[in-house]
Amino acid sequence: MCKWGVALSRKSISFTLNGEKTEIEVEPTLLLVDMLRNRLGLTGTKIGCGEGDCGACTVLLDGKTVNSCLILAMQVEGHEVLTVEGLGTYDKLHPLQSAFIAEGAVQCGFCTPGMLLSAKSLLDENPQPTRQQIAKHISGNLCRCTGYAKIINAIEKVANS
Amino acid sequence: MSQYRIVGQSVKKLDAVDKVLGKAQFAADIHFDGMLYAKVFRSNVPHGILRSLDVSKAEAMPGVVVILTGKDVPGSNSTGMIVKDEPVLVKDNGKIRKIGDPLALVAAETEVLAEKALELIEADIELLPPVFDPVAAMTDSSPKLYADGNILAVRKIRKGDTGVVFRQCAVVVEQEYRTQMVEHGYIEPEAGVAKLDGDVVNIWVSTQNTHFDAKEVARNLEVGLDKVRVIQAATGGGFGGKLDISVQVHLGLLAMKTRRPVKLVYSRTESIINSSKRHPCTIKMKTGTDNNGKLLAMECTIIGDTGAYASYGPGTLTRTAVHATGPYEIPHVTIDAHTVYTNNPTAGAMRGFGVPQVAFAHETQMDILAEKLGISPLEIRLLNALRPGAVTATGAELKQSVGIVPTLEKTEAAAKPIINSQCTHVTSQKKRGVGMASMWYGIGNTGLPNPSGAYVNLLDDGTALILTGCADIGQGSDTTLAQIVAEEFGIDMADIRVVSADTGITPDAGASSASRQTYISGNAVRLATQEAKKVLIEMAAVMLGVAPGDVVVGHKELCVRADSDQSQFLADCLSECRLDLGLSPKGKGQSVSLVDCIAQCRIKGKLTLGHGWFNPDTTGLDPETGQGIPYATYAFATQIAEVDVDTESGEIEVIRIVAAHDVGQAINPINIEGQIEGGCTMGLGYALTEEIQVSEGKILTKNLATYLMPTALDIPEMYPLIVEEPEQTGPFGAKGVGEPTLIPTAAAIANAVYNAIGVRFTELPITPEKVLARLHERQNA
Fold first, then answer.
1. A147: left (phi over 0), alpha (psi -120 to 50) or beta
2. Which residues form the 2Fe-2S ferredoxin-type domain (chain A) (predicted)?
C-alpha cells in the first residue's frame, strides 16, 4: 500500500549501481534515496531536507548530479547510479576523498558524500575548473560547518594534480 | 613553529576517513530488525488548553502499534536546559504554549503508516489569547504563559555610577538595535533510535550532550540513571540546537512501552519548527566617551524573546549582559537584560549564545563614536581595548591571556595590503566599503560550575584509550583531545583511540557548547594523562636511577632530563634497582622505551590508568549587581569585512573577511581555520539573508528554500589568522574558538556597508529591500 492508500503494482528494475548490475523490485512511489538507504543499505547518501534544497542526497545518475530525494527509484531503470560507497574504499580512497581529508574540508560530514559526488561530476566534465566554477557547481550542496573554503580548496587541489 | 610535537600540528581529523567514505553512522542510518517508526502529533495553535485527544481512529489503523499521550509519561513529564518547563507530551487539560508542542506519539510498522496515523488524531483545544510581542508580554495586562508571569529572568549589572558620569561625557551615542530570529541550520535534522537491552534503554542520538539527555530520559521514564544509556551517533552539526531535548525522551517512552527498537527522524520542516532558535533581541545602548575617545560609561537594556519555553534563555541573556561592553574597559556600566516568554518559537542556545546580538550593537556604537570623535575605528578600539589588569563590567580583573590588542593589530596588518586593492570593477553603481568589528567571549558556562571528566588508559603496547563524555559534533574535539594526550604521553596520533559521549562508558564532560571543550575537557584529559604518567615516570626513574623529577617524556621513551645531576650514588642505586627488577645491572643510561617502562609497571603490578576532571575557576554573579567572576578565561577576536553594495539592486556582496582569533594556543590550526571560515560564513548569513519569519507564532520560513543560508557562491575570500596569547590555566595554553568566529561578522559587515554608502543599519538582516528603502529615503530627503 502506498502513501495514498492505493495499491500500486511493484515492478522489478535493473540498473548499474556503483559498477555492479543490480536488480530490485520497487513500488512506483519509492524514491531513489529511500531505495538506496532502506532497501540496499547504502546509508552514505544522506537526507537533509527531502525537498531538493540541500544536496545532501546527491548521487550521480549517468555521471550527472541528481537529488535522489526528488526522483523515483523506477527512473534509474537501465541507468548507472554512483553513490559515495562506489567512490573509494578504506584501502583506496578516491583522490577527492584524500583531498577532502588533507585540506580540512570535513567537519560534521553530513554534506560530505553529496559534496564529493558533485565535485566528481564537475571534474569529470571539466578537469581544470576555476574557483568560481567550483563554487557554482557545488552551490546546490549546502554546508553549514566549513564555510565552503576548504571544500573548494580540496577540489581545486585535485584539479591541479 | 610549535614548541610541541603534536599540539599545534594540523593532524587529520580522526573521523574524516569514515565520513568521506559514507561509513560514519548518523542516527538515521541505524537499523534494527523489527524496528518501529515514530512520529509526533503536535499542536497547530500557539496558546490553548488541550481539552481532549481522540486517538481511537489512529489506534485502529492497521500497522499502528501504539499511541502515547500525556497520561503515558510515568515520570515528571518535563524537560528543559535550565527550567523544566517543556512538556514531553501535553496532558489533558494541560497548557499548549506554542505551535509544535507535542501532544501524542505514534509508533507504527513503517514511517508512512506512522505519518498517516497522525492525520487521524483529533485534538480538542480551547484557544487562549496569545502574546507574540515581548514588550507587550512584559505588561500586567498581557496574556500569561505561566502563573508567575512572562518575565522569566532579569540580569542586572551595576558598576560605578552611570547617571553622574554620563553628564561628564564629551560624546554620547544612544541607539536602538534589533536582531532577528535565526535557525541553526545543521544539515542533519534531529534523529535517534532506541532499543532495550534487558532493563537498560539504549538511545543513539544526534546530540551535543549525552549526559544531559540521559538525565532527562531517566526523570521522565522514572527509571534509574544507570538504566539509561545515551550514545552519541555521528552528529551532523549542532551549533547549540542539539543541546535541547528533541527525540530522546519520546524514543525512550516508545521503546519501554513496545519493547521493540524505535526510530524517530525529524523532517526538515519539523526540525525548523521545533528546534530552538537564536533569541531575537531589542537592545537600547547608550555609550559615552571623553574628548579623546576613552569610554567612560555605558547603559544598556536588552529584551530577549525566549518564546514559549526557557531552554537556555536565562543563560543566554546573562551572557548577553556580561558581554555588552564588548572587549573594552568601561568604568561605569548599567545593564539590564530581560528574558521574556511569548507564544513564539522557543529560542535557546545558538553559536555565540547571545553575544552576536550585543556585538552588533556595541561595535556599531564604537564606529559611530569614532566618527563623531574624528578618529579611526582602529584607534578607538585600541584606545579602549581590554589589557592585562583591566576590570570588566562584572568587576573581574583580567590577569593574562588578554589577546584583543594583538587581534586588532594582526587584522589591520593583514588587511592593509589586500583590502581595497582590487577595486577596478567598482562602478558608480557599486560602492565598496570596509568595516571592522571586535569581540570577546568567556569560555565555559557563565558563573556556574561546569566540570568535565575523563579517563585515560595507557595500554600494554603503548597505545592509549581516552574515555570522555565530550560530544564531537564535527568541530573536531575527539582529534583535539587525542592531540593533547599524544603530546603528554609522547605517543603518536595513530596510537590513540577516543571513545566519546556514551553515558554507559564515558564520564560526564558537560555540553559541547560555550566553546568550552578544548579548555575544560582538554584539561580533564590532560590531568587524566598526567595521573597515568606519574606511574610511568616513577617506574622510569627507578629504571634510569634518577629522581622522578629528572625524568621527561620523549617520543615513545622516557629520558633523563638533559640538565639532571645524576650522581654516582644514584648510578649505583640504578644498578642495584635493575638487579632487583631482574634486569641487567647496566641500563641504557639515558632513556628507557615507553613499552619497556609499561612492561615493568605491569611486572610490578601497576596499571597506567588515570582519571581527571576540571572545573573552571569562577564565582556566581550577584543577583543585584552582577558582580563576580563569570569565566576563567576569554577568547578575543577582530574581523575586517570588505563589501560591495549595489545601489541599484540593494544587494550586498561580501568580498573579503580577515579574521584574527586569539585561541591561547592552537592545538590543531587547520581545524581552527575551519571554525573561523565556518563562523564567518554563518555570520554573513546572519548579517544579510537569514531570518526565521514568524507570524502569529507560526514559522513561515519552514524549509531551506525560504530560509536562506549562504551557499558556496555567497562566500567571500576569507583570511583566517590565529593569535596565540597562552592561557596559563589552559591545556598547553589553549582556550576555545568555536563560537567567537561568528560573533563580530555581522557587525563588521554592517560597518562596511556604512563605509560604502553612508547608511547606518541598526536592524538585521540587511536585505536588499532595506538597503533600497534607505537609499530612496535619503534621495527624497
1. left
2. 11-87
Q: What is the mean pLDDT of residues B293-310?
A: 98
In what helix (H) or strand (E) does residue B463 lie, and over which residues does it extend?
A: none
- Each residue's pLDDT tens digit, B325-340: 999 999 999 999 999 9
- Listed by start position, the domains of chain A span 11-86, 95-159
Here the cell at position B729 is 590555566
Average pLDDT, chain B: 96
Grade residue A9 by pLDDT with cuts at 50, 70 and 90: confident
Report how far apart, in Å, the C-alpha atoms of B728 and of each of B519, B632, B731 are.
Answer: 11, 10, 8
Nearest beta carbon to residue A146 from set B112, B239, B678: B678
Q: What is the CA radius of gyration of chain A?
A: 16
**Per residue in A61-78, pLDDT tens?**
999 999 999 999 999 999
Strand, coil or helix: B589: coil
Strand B36-42 vs strand B64-69: parallel, antiparallel, or unpaired? unpaired
Please state the separation of Cα B610 from the chain's center in Å. Answer: 28
CA proximity to B65, closest of B260, B236, B348, B300 = B260
Q: Which of A47, A91, A103, A110 to mutate to test the interface with B (most CBs of B within 10 A)?
A: A110
All structural domains of chain B: 36-128+184-274 (3.90.1170.50), 281-447+621-780 (3.30.365.10), 451-614 (3.30.365.10)
Q: Is the CB of A104 less than 8 angstroms away from the CB of B237?
A: no
Model confidence pLDDT, tens digit, residues B400-450: 999 999 999 999 999 999 987 555 556 779 999 999 999 999 999 999 999
Phi, psi of B204 (to 5 degrees): -95, 130
Q: How far is B414 from chain A (nearest CA, A)?
A: 18
Q: Is the pLDDT of residue B392 over 60?
A: yes
What is the pLDDT averaged over residues B49-75? 98
User: Could you give the count of Cα atoms lying within 13 Å of B200 in the half-sphere of its Cβ?
Assistant: 14
- What gap in Å lies between CA B187 and CA B511, rounded to an integer? 20
Residues A37-45 have a mean pLDDT of: 98
Considering CB atoms only, which of A56, A100, A106 is closest to B187? Answer: A56
The predicted model scores a pTM of: 0.96
Fold matches, A11-86 and A95-159: no
Instruction: Write b or e for each residue in B530-544: b if 16 or more Cβ atoms lie within 10 A of its Cβ, otherwise e.
Output: ebbbebbbbbbbbbb
CA dist A69 and A33 (Å) reads: 5
Task: State which fold the A11-86 domain adopts.
Answer: Ubiquitin-like (UB roll) (3.10.20)
Q: Does A95 touch chain B (CB under 8 A)?
A: no
Give B192-221 pLDDT, tens digit per residue.
Answer: 999 999 999 999 999 999 999 999 999 999
Phi and psi based region of residue B198 (left: phi greater than 0; alpha: psi -120 to 50; beta: remaining): left
> Percent of chain A at pLDDT above 90?
94
A28 interface with B at CB cutoff 8 Å: no
CATH class, range A95-159: mainly alpha
B673-716 per-position pLDDT tens digit: 999 999 999 999 999 999 999 999 999 999 999 999 999 999 99
Check if B24 contacts A (Cβ < 8 Å): yes
Who's near B567: CB < 8 A, 6+ residues apart? none
> So what's the ipTM on this one?
0.97
> Nearest CA to B686 among B430, B359, B431?
B359
Let me know if B759 is exposed, middle or buried by CB neighbors in 10 A (0-12, 13-18, 19+): middle
Q: How far apart are CA B393 and CA B400, in angstroms?
A: 17
| Interface contact B200, partner A, CB < 8 A | no
The predicted pLDDT at position B584 comes to 59
DSSP label at A77?
T
d(CA B221, CA A111): 35
